[in-house]
Structures are given as C-alpha cells and as structure tokens.
Amino acid sequence: MDSFFDNWQGNSGKIIGVLIGVIVGITILLFGFFKSIFIVFCAIIGYYIGKIVDNKESLRDVLDKILPPGR
C-alpha cells in the first residue's frame, strides 16, 4: 500500500489523466461521440452550480452573472 502512495505523489497527474481518458473512451464507446459531449457539458454545468452553492451565492446573483441584466 505504501508503494501506491509513493507512486501517487510522483505521478498523480498521469494517473488522473489515464483514468479520465479511460472513462471518456468507455463513454464514447457506449453512448457515441455527441451523447458523450452532452454528458461532459452537463457535468461542467453541475460542477459550476455546485461551486456556486458551496460559495453560498444567491440564485439571483448567479443569474445576473449568466444572463444579461434585465429591467
């Protein structure tokens, strides 16, 4: 187990990159390219919303950042 943590310290970027590549490859094989792009897009939106919730911003502040100001 110590060997895993030693490898993780020196190669964490490579390990994460390989895992992301495998997940993206499997997703494209299972669902197709455009459905995979949609899944990634939804994940990015979910991350953004989660980040906003963590920062305790109100929904009105979020909408003001995304949409043009109204009347």
Question: What is this structure's SSE topology?
Answer:
Blueprint: H1 2-31, H2 33-54, H3 59-66
In short:
The chain is mostly helical. It has two domains: 1-31; 32-71.
Walk me through this protein's architecture.
It is a single chain. By secondary structure, this protein is mainly α. The protein folds into two domains: 1-31; 32-71. Helix content is 85%, strand content 0%. It has helices at 2-31, 33-54, 59-66. The longest helix is centred in the N-terminal third of the chain and has 30 residues, at 2-31. 0% of the residues are buried.
List keywords for this structure.
flat, mainly alpha, 71 residues
Which oligomeric state applies?
single chain
The helical percent reads over 70%
* Integer-rounded radius of gyration: 18 Å
Return residue spans where pLDDT drops below 50 for at least 5 consecutive residues. none
Tally of contiguous helical segments: 3
Mean pLDDT: 80
Q: Indicate how many domains the architecture comprises.
A: 2
Structural class: mainly alpha
Question: Based on CA inertia axes, which overall geometry fits?
Answer: flat
End-to-end Cα distance, whole Å, is 60 Å
Strand content: under 5%
Number of strand segments: 0
The secondary-structure element order is HHH
Largest sheet: none
